[in-house]
């Protein structure tokens, strides 16, 4: 009788604790794998047993479903191309839409360009993500309305991409998911004194000294950048500048953004 009571007392603590420890006698959770180099291997999540495993050379994310089961997400749970537009900006020259006037250094960027296909110019995030932006934007430069630039001065041409919320006319997105200024304290439009929001700032120099020859159109600038954004609908837009060290006496130099084929690509890297 004493022996039976003793066995019963030994079993009672294990019923109440209901914890399993591996490499430890004092588990802190239902399952506790101790050790600084410890790992857990689940054959059902391995490659090629699980079709959602990305295979050798890649790392697959593990998710928890509503039932508490550990599962591998699909490729769409990890990364997705949300937006890929060819010839994104409207092509015709329009002083009120895509014209940038030459200025001296330090005067800043100006908004330029409008989407060619406005109804299809947005993408939507259903959850927070790290957004990768890739763009190739076209431009042309002319003097006094239709002539080639011919003074031989080196001009800095710079572009950046920014987002508007909702659609192309919505509020400018100047902060990221954590509330930090996107691109830092950088002026992305001198006309409105908008600070923050600039992504993928890139540029090149242009110069020409031949009035009859010399290229003046179908140039491209490319840019790439990353930003963490919350769920929402966004529209990619552009800002640019045309700068020369001495603007006096060089004529009315204009740059038009988006006059050729442009591409904008938005990729979401999910981490939740």
Automatic annotation (TrEMBL):
Span of the signal peptide: 1-18
UniProt keyword list: Signal
Domain of life: Bacteria
Protein's recorded name: Uncharacterized protein
């Amino acid at each position: 009788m004493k022996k039976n009571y003793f066995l019963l007392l030994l079993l009672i603590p294990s019923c109440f604790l209901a914890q399993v420890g591996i490499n430890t006698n004092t588990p802190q959770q239902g399952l506790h794998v101790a050790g600084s180099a410890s790992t857990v291997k689940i054959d059902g999540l391995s490659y090629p047993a699980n079709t959602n495993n990305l295979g050798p050379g890649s790392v697959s994310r593990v998710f928890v479903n509503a039932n508490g089961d550990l599962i591998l997400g699909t490729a769409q749970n990890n990364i997705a191309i949300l937006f890929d537009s060819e010839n994104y900006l409207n092509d015709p020259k329009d002083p009120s839409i895509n014209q940038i006037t030459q200025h001296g250094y330090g005067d800043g960027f100006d908004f330029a360009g409008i989407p060619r296909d406005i109804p299809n110019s947005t993408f939507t995030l259903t959850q927070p993500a790290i957004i990768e932006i890739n763009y190739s934007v076209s431009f042309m430069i002319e003097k006094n309305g239709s002539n080639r630039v011919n003074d031989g001065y080196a001009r800095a041409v710079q572009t950046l991409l920014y987002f508007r919320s909702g659609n192309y006319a919505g509020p400018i997105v100047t902060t990221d998911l954590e509330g930090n200024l996107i691109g830092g304290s950088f002026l992305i439009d001198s006309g409105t004194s908008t600070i923050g929001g600039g992504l993928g700032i890139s540029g090149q120099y242009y110069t020409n000294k031949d009035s009859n020859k010399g290229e003046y159109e179908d140039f491209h600038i490319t840019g790439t950048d990353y930003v963490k954004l919350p769920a929402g609908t966004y529209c990619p837009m552009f800002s640019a500048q045309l700068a020369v060290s001495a603007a006096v006496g060089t004529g009315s130099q204009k740059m038009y953004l988006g006059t050729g084929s442009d591409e904008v690509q938005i990729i979401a890297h999910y981490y939740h």
